Amino acid sequence: MNSENDRNQQQAIGRYRPNLCLYHANAKGTGSAVKMNLHPAHDNTDGCIMLTIANQLTVGNRLAPQPTFATFDWENAICVKLDFGDLAQLLQVMRGECESISDGKGLYHRTHKAATSVRFCHRLEPVPGYLLEVCRKPIGGEGEECRACFVFSLAEALGVCEAVTGVLGVVAFGIPMLMPHDTTAYRNAMRAQRGVESSPDAGRSEVLRAS
User: Residues 6 or more apart from 77 whose CB is under 8 A from it?
Assistant: First the structure.
């Protein structure tokens, strides 16, 4: 029983929360919210951050006897996949290396159903911050164009910049294995390429060094 509890505790320690949500509601009902969901790289699948942006749906009243909170139109939200290259360009803007992505042209993603443009820029007026604009246009004339924007405050942009910087390695290479693993097959393959004969104990020494 104790060993099972220990295993469960170790698994709990290794868990992480791959979501970040920011909400900007206002009294006019013109606010928006953004969610960022981390997908680590694994096997032959590249990692990414799925960014979802939704316009404000209701205003809410937090001062009423029975307070209600603002809601957002997640059902009609726009979701876009940001890969390693996309995230690197976002970081360049937040670090002050440039004022916008591709001199204001932004990112362009296209599927068989829709074309999505993502613009991200530093702005000073009316309030200093970073403006994210996402627009999705259906291909073939079916459906309506969707558009949403979100303004990151300077503090929020700093936090997002640090967070994305911290997970960029996970997007590129996945979550590192916490336990030593046998590299015998890889080492033998490399030796074979170099014309070096491998020995049965070659991989064992690598495992011992890893541990």
Answer: 52, 53, 54, 148
Closest to 27 (Cα-Cα) out of 55, 54, 58, 53: 58
So what's the architecture of 2-173 in CATH?
Roll (2.30)
Could you tell me where in the chain the CATH 2.30.31.40 domains are found? 2-173
Instruction: Reply yes or no on whether the pLDDT at 194 is more than 80.
Output: no
C-alpha atoms less than 13 angstroms from C-alpha of 205 in its C-beta half-sphere: 7
d(CA 50, CA 35): 8
Are the C-beta atoms of 62 and 71 separated by less than 8 Å?
no
pLDDT at 211 over 80: no
**DSSP one-letter code for 104:** G
Helical H segments across 19-137, by residue range: 84-94
Cβ neighbors of 187 (< 8 A, separation 6 or more) are 198, 202, 203, 206
- Give the helix/strand (H/E) hosting 23: strand 19-24
Please state, rounded to an integer, the average pLDDT across all residues of the chain. 84
Two tokens, residue 22? 């920011």
